[in-house]
Amino acid sequence: MKEIELTLLDYLIGSLSVLPWGIVLWKSFPKKLSRNAQIGIVMALLLGWVSTVLILWLHPVIWPQTDFVTKKKVSMLTQTAHLAFIQAGMMEESFKILFILLLSFALSFDFKTKSFLPESALFAGFVAMGFSFIENTHYIVREVSERKLDIFLARTIHSSNIHLLINLCFGMFLLKSNSKEVGEKVRYLFFAFLLAVLQHGVVDFLLIPGASFGQWVASAMFVGIWVWVVRDWRVYVTAYLLDKKTLIPASEYSSQST
């Protein structure tokens, strides 16, 4: 893969593609961030960056015949599925989720109660932002001048959003796992990892061919995930922090809010 020399301006443009989502995530947290949480956010952004760098380095080693940034439409179904679910979904989510887990255990895990704190979801979102920041920067730099604005808007509106939702969804599973026993918790989080890979793979599978139908289906899918994540955020983050710091079951919370 041809090396790209990134400038400060390139990084600035890339950061603007994730800035709106980062602000939304920050402002959505229902209490003032502690110093520990602020450090965790910075670490999350850095770990997201590191995961992108590792993937950029490993990808041509594992798949030397395939460019990291795919420009051509893939005609064969199996090639599309491999690219979407394995080369993109499995590889990217493995690194991101590994770093989310490490950061959550280090800064937002109560070892006495063996439970994750709401900051874990926040860290998950910012790992996604750090990853998207570098990935978007590479995509924008590689694009021809006439299409840089188009790719910037596409990466800002769609790609950054998709990475954020997938990892926020995993962050919600971390908080939901607090009610599980240790053995069940491990299985539950492994399922959450597989779900993240599936979500990533499905959306890439729909988007890679470039057909309008696939784009509409992918968009509809992530509207649904947005609804799912927002509902869980209200229960497992907002309700936890504002209502006596106890987790309210989703069904009970829904009945109270109607």
TrEMBL record:
This is PrsW family intramembrane metalloprotease. The chain crosses the membrane at residues 12-29, 41-63, 83-109, 121-140, 187-207, 213-230. It holds the Pfam family PrsW-protease. Keywords: Hydrolase, Membrane, Metalloprotease, Protease, Transmembrane, Transmembrane helix. GO terms for molecular function: metallopeptidase activity. Signal peptide: none annotated. PANTHER family: PROTEASE PRSW.
